[in-house]
C-alpha cells in the first residue's frame, strides 16, 4: 500500500475523534459536531472522511461501537472510548503537544 | 491482541458484508439527515439544506469505498473474486485443470500417506504409560560383542533388590503352554510369566478382577492366572463369572483372578498371564532368559541409573566370578527398542522420496500454470495496459493456483485413504510397529492442508512473478505477436524440467538399487534347500512326557508315522529352524586349537538336531559324519559348521578335536563339519559360526520344530500330519504349520516392501516428469506455430522441424539427467546400509534409469512435435 498523502491528517482526525469521545459516547454526526466545536470550524475536511477513520480506530481496539437510539428517537450507531483508547489518547495528546511546541519554536526562531 | 481483534473485525465484515454495508448505509443516512435538520434549523430552504449537507459530506461513494478499505474488506473481497475467477478460468481449460489437480493430488497424497505412517509408527506414544520413564534393562558382554541379552533369574532378583534408581522392575518370559479345561478342546496358548505389579507399571487396565499380589509372585504361592480379553471373549464368551473358574495350564489347575485388556498385547500377544515366581536358589546365574523392563524413579535420569547398575554389575562380577565374568548391564530407552533406528532411517528415506515427488508435482503444476498464463499473455497484457497493478496480476494467477490446490488437496485426501489401505495390504506383518493404527487422522489432515497451501505458493509463485511484469508494449506491439518465443519464459520452464528430470532420476535409481538388492537377497543361497519342506512345532507336555526318553519315544512315533505318508522322503527335528524365530548361542572354547588360546571363546549359534535333520534340510556334509542313533557315549558328539572349523582349525582337520561349551570341564568331540546356513539373517552379516548338538543327548529342549521334506506340495500334508499326532496323543497340540520357504520369506519381506514402495514412488515421479515435459513441448509448439509455418512455407523439411523441436525439448532433459547423476552420489549414500550385494554406484542401474527416462521424454516430446508437422503454413500465417 502506498502511504496516503493525507496520513498526517488521518492521524489528526483520529486523535480529534478520540478527544471528542473523552467525556461521553456519541454517534458519528455528534463526533463531527464536537470536532467542529473544538476546532472552531477551522479544520475543513469532508465530513465523510470521519467514517473510515472511525473504522480504523475500532480495528485498533481504541473505540467500540453499538447501536442505540438518538435523542430524536432514531436508531444510530454510538461510539465510545475503550480503556486502551483512553491511554492512547493521553499519549498522543502529549506527543502532539510536544511536536506542536517544537514546530512553534522552529517557526518562531527561523 | 489488537491485531487479532483487527483481523476478527475484518473477517466479520467480510463474511457478513451485506449486513456491514447496510449498517454503513444507515449510519451515513443518519448523518446526512442530522446535518440537514441542523441546516434547516439554521433557516435554509429544504433543497438548499440537502445540497449543503451533501457538499460538506464530500461524496458518499468515496466514503463507502474508503470504509471498505479501512475494514480490509476490499483485499479479502478481491482475493475471493480472484479465487472464483480462477475456478472459472479452469473450467475453460478442463484438460489442463484436471492434469494439474491430479498431479497435485498425487504429490500431496503421497506425502499424506507417508506422514500418516511416520506419525503412527514413530511419533505417537507407545502403548504404555509414561514411555519416557521406562527402560529395557539388559545384560551385556562387550568382549563377546553381546549388546542386549536377557537377564538370569538370580541377577534379576539381585538387581531388583539392590537398585534404588527404579520405582519397579518387571521381568517376564514367554512360553507356549497347553491350555485345557472341562469340556473344551485343549489348545496351545501363548503364556507369559511376569512380575507382580506389571499392569500398574505399563498402565494396562484389568477388565475383571485384580492383578497378582507380591505374595503370589513368590515361590510356594498359589497357582493363579490372568487371562487376556480376547481369550475371555472368544473361549469363555465373556463369562462374567470367570473369576469362579479354574483353568488347566500344562495339566495343572490355576485359579483365574482377572481379565486384562488387550492393550496389554503391546509387548507380545499373550493369552494367559502367570506370576513369574523368580526363585534364585533353583536357577543358574548364567542361564539368561528374562526380559526386564524397569521404571525409573521420579527425577532419576537414564545416565544416573546406568551408573548405579554399572556399580551393581561390578559387585555381582566380584561375588560370582565363574558365571559373571565379563557380564555387565545396559539400560536402553523403551522407545529405542520399539522404534529401531533402522526403521526410522528407512521411513525417513521414504519420506524424503515423497518430498521429492511433491517437488516434481509442484514443478509440473508451475509449468502448467506458466503455459496456461502464456496462452493468456495478451489478456494479461491488456489488463496491465488498462492499469492493473503488478500485485493484481499476481493475485489473479495465485487465485488460479489456489483453486487448483483446493481441488488437488481434496482429491489427495481420497487418494491417501486409498493409498494407506494399499500400503497396509502390502506391508509385511510385524515390521511396521502399530501398523493397525495407521490412518489419516486430524494431524494428517492438518499436514495435508499445510502441504496444499505450500504447494500453491511454490507452484503459483513462479508464474505469478514471471507474468506480473509482462510488458504490454512488447506483447501487443506492432507485429501483434512476436514470431518465435520469449527466451526468458522458456528458460524458467526449462529449469523446471531440468529439476523434474533430475529428481526423477534420483528416485528411479534409488528404487532400482533397492530392487536389485532385494533380488540379490532372494537369490542368495541360504546353505540348505528351502523348497518342498513342511514345518511345524510341538511342545510336548512336560507332565506327560517328562524331559528324557519318553520325549524321544514320542518323537520317534511321530517320525515313523509321518515317514509312512506318501510323498514324504525325509524328516528331521531341530530346536529351531532357520528363520523360525528365536536365537540360541553360547561361547565355545577348545583346548585343541592352534589359533585360538584355550581361555578364549567364540560366540557360536547352536541348534539341537536329530539324526535325520541334515538329510531333510539338505545341508551338505563337508567332513566326518552326521549323528547316528548311538551318539550318546560318555563324550557327547558335536557337529560344527565350516566357518567354525576355519576359525579354530584353519590348517588341520577338526574331526576328533575337543570343545568346551560355555566353560567348565565337560568336553564334546567333533564328529563332523557341515556347511554354514543362514539361520536368522539372509545377508549373513550377523550370522555367527554354527554348531549342532545331538537330540539324543539334549532331550529337554521344550519346543521342537519338525522339517518334513516332500515330493508333493508341502502344505497339502498339513491335515494328515495333524491327524497322525492326534492319533498318537489327542491332548497334544501341534502348531505353527509353515514351509521352509515361507519362513525364510519373512526375511525378505522388509526389503521387498521398501523396494515396492520406492518403486511406486519412482514410477509416479517418472509419469509426472513426462507430463511436465509434454506440457512444455505442447506450449513450445503452440508458441512457434507461426514460425514453423513460415519455415515450412519457405521449404523446410519435416525432419529439420523435428530436429529443431527435439533439440529444444531435449536439452533440458539432458541437463536434468546430468544434474540428477551428480545428485545421485550423496543421495544413494544414505541407502547404502539397506543394500545387499549392490553397490551404490551400480552403472547398469544408472544406465537403465537414464534410458527409461530418456524414452519417456522422447515420447513426451514426440507427441506434440508430430502435431507441429501437421501445421498448415497458410493457416498458421493467417492465424490470429
Approximately what portion of the residues of chain B adopt beta-strand conformation?
15-25%
Largest sheet of chain B: 6 strands, mixed, barrel
Biggest contact = A-B, 25 and 30 residues
- Rounded mean pLDDT of chain B is 85
**Number of E strands of chain A:** 3
Describe the structure.
The complex is a heterodimer of chains A (110) and B (880). Chain A has 110 residues and is an alpha+beta fold. Chain A is 57% helix and 15% strand. Chain A has helices at 7-20, 28-39, 50-59, 83-109; strands spanning 26-27, 63-69, 75-81. A 3-stranded antiparallel beta sheet of chain A has the order 1-3-2. With 880 residues, chain B is α+β, with helices and mostly antiparallel strands. Chain B has a 6-stranded mixed beta barrel. In chain B, a hairpin with a 5-residue loop joins strand 19 (658-661) and strand 20 (667-674). The longest helix of chain B has 54 residues, at 740-793. The interface between A and B is medium-sized, with 25 and 30 residues.
Question: Care to give the gist of this entry?
Answer:
The complex is a heterodimer of chains A (about 110) and B (about 900). Helices cover about 55% and strands about 15% of the residues of chain A.
